[in-house]
């Protein structure tokens, strides 16, 4: 299957659509809450509306902060990003009781593209457990030897249809839409960072690894699909 190549303007437009999709729901809830405050006189209803506005504003802020690191420039060309900041925005994104984050990584400065890979793999892992569960993130090594491991565990854990092909830059049908742009972008950034991505789904778990290109991502005897 031939790799898909997006024009820069198309890539930018699709990523913008993805970010807008992530924030439009909490922003809409804020607008609804403000409308209720303007019209409602009941103290209890006003209290509930304020709580809705507060939660929605927090959600919108958390998603924007995450997207800034996962998709944005986050500094000048060649800049590094603190993995502690990456952990904080990920915890903010998963700020509910449904999904727990276990972050196993030393705090360090990493090239921004590798941090983007970590964050985008977390998004794919989150989508793999829609009913909630646990996401384990591990970062080992430094520089060119950096390896990333993200595992999602939860009921009926599975990778969405088409994600492996999108990560590999070979989407079904040869085109990428707003629904698939995040996985496609993850593959682009991984390759730019010199990383090879592999996926392995086993019942209640989805394991995603990004290792230096050419290096085996799973232990001998295990089977996994590699997306160089």
Please tell me about this protein's structure:
- The chain is α+β, with helices and mostly antiparallel strands.
- The protein has a single domain (8-227), classed as Histidine kinase-like ATPase, C-terminal domain (Heat Shock Protein 90), CATH 3.30.565.10.
- It contains six helices and eight strands.
- It has helices spanning 8-39, 43-70, 83-93, 112-128, 163-167, 181-192; strands at residues 80-82, 99-104, 109-111, 133-140, 147-153, 195-202, 205-212, 225-227.
- Strands 2-4-5-7-6-8 form a six-stranded mixed beta sheet. It has a two-stranded antiparallel sheet with strand order 1-3.
- The radius of gyration is 19 Å and the shape is globular.
- Residues 218-226 have low confidence and may be disordered.
Summarize the structure.
With 228 residues, the chain is an alpha+beta fold. It has helices at residues 8-39, 43-70, 83-93, 112-128, 163-167, 181-192, and strands spanning 80-82, 99-104, 109-111, 133-140, 147-153, 195-202, 205-212, 225-227. β4 (133-140) and β5 (147-153) form a beta hairpin.
CATH superfamily: Histidine kinase-like ATPase, C-terminal domain
- Helicity range: 40-55%
Number of discrete helical segments: 6
Alpha-beta content class: alpha+beta
- The percent range for strand residues is 15-25%
Output the strand order for the largest sheet: 2-4-5-7-6-8
Low-confidence stretches: 218-226
Shape: globular
CATH class, named Alpha Beta
Q: First CA to last CA: what distance?
A: 14 Å
Task: Name the average pLDDT.
Answer: 89
């Amino acid at each position: 299957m031939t790799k898909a190549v997006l024009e820069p303007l198309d890539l930018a437009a699709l990523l913008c659509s993805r970010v807008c999709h992530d924030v439009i729901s909490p922003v809409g809830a804020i607008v609804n809450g403000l409308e209720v405050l303007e019209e409602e006189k009941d103290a209890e209803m006003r209290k509930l509306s304020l709580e809705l506005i507060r939660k929605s504003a927090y959600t919108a802020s958390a998603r924007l902060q995450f997207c800034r690191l996962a998709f944005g420039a986050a500094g000048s060309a060649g800049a590094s990003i603190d993995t502690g900041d990456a952990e904080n925005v990920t915890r903010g994104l998963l700020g509910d009781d449904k999904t727990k984050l276990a972050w196993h990584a030393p705090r360090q400065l990493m090239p921004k593209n590798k941090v983007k890979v970590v964050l985008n793999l977390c998004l794919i892992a989150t989508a793999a457990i829609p009913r909630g569960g646990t996401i384990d993130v591990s970062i080992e090594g430094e520089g060119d030897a950096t390896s990333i491991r993200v595992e999602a565990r939860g009921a009926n854990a599975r990778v969405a249809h088409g994600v492996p092909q999108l990560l590999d830059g070979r989407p079904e049908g040869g085109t990428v839409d707003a629904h698939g742009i995040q996985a496609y972008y993850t593959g682009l950034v991984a390759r730019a960072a010199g990383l090879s991505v592999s996926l392995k789904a086993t019942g209640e778990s989805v394991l995603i690894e990004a290792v230096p290109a050419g290096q085996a991502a799973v232990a001998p005897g295990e089977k996994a699909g590699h997306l160089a």
